[in-house]
Amino acid sequence: MLAVSVFAQAAGTVVVATPAFLIPLLHVQQHMPLEQAGLLATAPNLGLVATLIAWGGAADRWGERNVLAIGLALAAVAAFAATLVQGLAPLGALLVLAGAGTASVNAASGRVVVGWFPPERRGLAMGIRQSCQPLGVAVAALVVPALVSGGDVAPALVFGGILVAVSAVLCLIVIIDPARPARADAPARHTANPYRRDGLLWRIHAVSVLLVVPQYALSTFGLVWLEVDQGWSPLAAGILVAVAQFLGALGRIAVGWLSDRVGSRLRPLRWVALAGIAALLLTAAAGGLHLAIAVAITYVLASCIAVADNGLAFTSVAEIAGPFWSGRALGAQNTGQFLGAAIVGPGVGALIGLVGYPIAFALVAVAPAIATPLIPKDAAVARLRDTLESSRS
Description:
By secondary structure, the protein is mostly helical.
């Protein structure tokens, strides 16, 4: 079930990430303004933002298996339909619908992991599950530029549609909904709205929104930065972006394992945020000096760090929310992240146009700098998690 969840999320990520790797074709060859191309790249994220909480609520009520299968099937239909339309608006609308379908995976597959793995192994399991996002981006970085080399976006959309269609069938066959405690048997304080209990979830959501800014700035504009500003070939740029995403996937697994060992999700999260500040500043400096080797090293390092936080925050949210609210809380978690990602495309695109890539990447480092002091302390989270786990058992 973990393997199928990883494949499903990776397939959905390919669909969501594909428009970002269409930017060189749309901007360089077809002369679309970078702001419009960035907006198209964020279209699937808009669908995610609009539907994540609803999918999470559906998973809380009706279970993970059905939600996964239905959402992925919807994404497949939208991806295939997008190959039949012309024009920015129809294509963007169908990409929004495809993103809405893939949103089902974000909350539902997270509940599968939280439901089937105990706390002492949950960080590693969630790190493996969360590795699918950079893996999906890596696949898109390698495959999409080759598929659209003829000037047509349809092959890339078909590729993503096939992946989510296969994953829908696998989820329907393999996934078993984890057992959840009966609501009637649980104390009222455990079934109450966790957002009214304290500010822990709100703070983690805010931190995650801020930390998603460097992640999407680097993944959305990394390819076009390497090609247009640094003079790299499309093949070399695609390989570097793919390597960065693949290593980022391994990094998520590593920090998940580390969180199990140190008994904390939030202490490693703070380490990641601090490291992200330094990595972004080094990337900006290397790019400004046009040092090819330094650009490669710092971009890979910054990309790995930028994606490392996701599984830590995701697991914390599920543990704090508890079994009765985890679907909606995970939906809210991803809603904030993808809302931030939706702003990154046109916002950072406009910033790049105004001040250039090096200064823009340096300014992106402000986001993790603000996030660091917002990360909650371990003690409050540990006490709450222990209480919820005792009621869960």
